[in-house]
Specification:
The longest helix has about 35 residues. The protein has a two-stranded antiparallel ribbon. About 65% of the residues lie in helices and about 0% in strands. The protein is mainly α and about 575 residues long. The protein folds into two domains: about 350 residues, no CATH class; about 60 residues, no CATH class. It is built from 25 helices and four strands. Its main location: endoplasmic reticulum.
């Protein structure tokens, strides 16, 4: 009787706390934004790449340079795709060619706020981190991926599907039932290094992360083409977003099949890359000459509206006249002249230079900046063999660890597809089953009916988070700003890992990781901590998924041959 009372009390408390998720996150976001304003005004800005970015953009805008090999700044040549150029061209215009640092810092603070708002309110809110009932309903129904129905919570079960031992401690029962955000989501606002990356360093990694979180939120909602577009926008800023590609590909293939995935995700992805890079792939000189001629005579009367002569223009007061001037210039071009200029467009002689520089996969990073492999001797770090070993470990972890029949997350939507097992040489729950299903019509029909039941927000987020973390674990080198690539996923990864390790261990992993990323310069000890923290999060995700797979298999009595 006492156990039932404690379980009921725990469920009631958890239900109430779940309703408080949005107010809790709003308060957290406001407090974090206030902290950001304080940091900007109290902590000195540190110059690393901002001036170099602005110098590179000056080459593009003022000098009209389109040869990527000749676009350089104080820290060297440009090595980022065209999306970076487009974004920092806008920042260049809004900050007086980079001179107005305060405006730039405020823009990055807004970016930080928006990114975390999307994470908390758009991504985490629809997962079990905000509502543990979602997960318990999935487990008790035998379908760990089915969305929550709001049913009364069943008595707790352990990850293997057996009844939990009797617990007389009501406080412990309530603590176990509380939503993950009570402790996990708070971690999102606690990183000293992340605040520095955004408002004190102004790195382009922040924009790549912004596009990624939008893409993840769209993928959770099955907006396949839109998610591919935003993944592509992220890649157009920095290539690190490609680390999400293995997980995203598994999701797209299961949901759409090979031809559907090609049409609805691969094509939009490639088109965005082409559109963003057009200024460097096509020689627009006939069109730009015509446009500049008309832009020179465009009047910009809106520039002075709403401000005194002695006050600097706001962002809006800058954007409005810029847009008005460009639209006025575009509208004043005669149609015949415009058509004639378009007919003279040609592929740029520097197109290959752009592709080779913006997507340079063979680039070797400097040993002095590495955060993760400081404990490896420099000669080994720089060797091609080390890079190949990391790539091999990356692929092996994905194929044999997460995309195998014993991985509980990546291929989970395949488990009900009996037609997959019926295919020649079929197996019910494997990477081979997915490949076969792409070419057997009967399998695709079954998958089309069942796969969406499996692709709930937790499945999508776990797959994408693990894909990214695996890539980061085996990255050739990590620099301090790369922390922004994955920090937004850390609370969720630790929440899932806490199901295996316990909450105190998860918090210890976070604290160790945060210490290591704030150790400058990196040391052998700090880099060992970085690598091991990532490894523990990846292992925690794998173990959590494996136990859930076992729980479903044991509860349904299916797939005995895999036991």
């Amino acid at each position: 009787m006492l156990v039932v009372q404690n379980t009921s009390r725990a469920a009631s408390v958890a239900a109430v706390v779940s309703l408080l998720y949005i107010p809790f996150c709003v308060v957290l976001l406001v407090a974090d934004a206030a902290l950001g304003f304080i940091i900007i005004r109290k902590v000195s800005y540190t110059e690393i790449d901002w001036v170099a970015y602005m110098e590179q953009i000056t080459h593009v805008v003022d000098n009209g340079q389109r040869n990527y090999t000749l676009i350089e700044g104080g820290t060297g040549p440009i090595v980022y795709p065209a999306g970076h150029v487009a974004i920092y061209t806008l920042l260049w215009a809004l900050t007086g060619k980079g001179a107005d640092l305060l405006t730039a810092q405020n823009i990055f603070l807004y970016l930080y706020f928006l990114t975390h708002a999307i994470v908390l309110l758009g991504i985490y809110r629809i997962t079990s981190i905000a509502d543990p009932d979602r997960e318990s309903d999935q487990s008790s129904s035998g379908n760990l991926l089915r969305p929550s129905t709001g049913a009364t919570r069943e008595p707790a079960k352990n990850p293997l599907g057996n009844a939990a031992p009797n617990q007389d401690d009501s406080i412990s029962a309530i603590a176990r039932a509380l939503p993950g955000y009570v402790w996990a989501a708070v971690l999102l606002a606690l990183s000293k290094r992340l605040h520095s990356i955004y408002v004190l360093r102004l790195f382009n990694d922040c924009f790549a992360t912004f596009f990624v979180v939008i893409a993840v939120a769209l993928t959770q909602r099955h907006k396949w083409s839109l998610s591919a577009i935003f993944f592509s926008l992220a890649v157009s800023v920095k290539m690190n977003a490609l680390l999400f590609l293995p997980g995203a590909a598994i999701i797209y293939l299961q949901a759409l099949g090979i031809f559907g995935a090609a049409k609805r995700t691969a094509v939009p992805f490639i088109l965005i890359q082409i559109l963003v890079a057009l200024p460097f792939l096509v020689d627009f000189s006939p069109l730009t000459t015509l446009f500049k001629t008309h832009l020179a005579v465009a009047s910009l009367p809106l520039y002075e509206l709403g401000r005194a002569p002695e006050t600097p223009p706001t962002v809006i007061q800058t954007l409005i006249p810029l847009a008005a001037g460009y639209l006025q210039a575009l509208g004043s071009i005669p149609v015949t002249q415009f058509i004639a200029a378009v007919s003279q467009l040609r592929v740029s002689p520097y197109a290959f230079d752009y592709l080779s520089r913006a997507f340079e996969f063979s680039r070797v990073f400097l040993y002095k900046w590495t955060v993760n492999w400081r404990f490896v001797p420099e000669d080994i770090f720089l060797s091609p063999g080390f890079a190949k070993s990391l790539l091999g470990a990356h692929l092996a972890t994905i194929v044999f660890g997460f995309a195998s029949h014993r991985a509980g997350w990546w291929l989970a939507p395949l488990k009900p597809a009996k037609a997959v097992r019926a295919a020649p040489g079929g197996s019910d729950y494997s990477l081979a089953a997915l490949v076969r299903s792409l070419f057997f019509e009967n399998s695709r029909v079954v998958l089309a009916r069942r796969v969406f039941d499996g692709m709930d927000p937790d499945y999508v987020l776990s797959t994408l988070v693990s894909s990214n973390l695996i890539g980061i674990l085996f990255a050739r080198s990590l620099h301090y700003q790369f922390y922004s690539w994955f920090y937004w996923t850390v609370p969720y990864a630790l929440y899932r890992a806490s199901k295996v390790y316990s909450i105190p261990v998860a918090l210890a992993i976070w604290a160790s990781q945060e210490w290591a990323w704030n150790t400058y310069p990196s040391t052998k000890i700090s880099s060992i901590v970085v690598v091991n923290s990532l490894a523990l999060m990846v292992l925690g995700l794998w173990l959590d998924g494996f136990k859930k797979y076992r729980a479903v298999r044991n509860s349904t009595g299916k797939f005995k041959k895999d036991a």
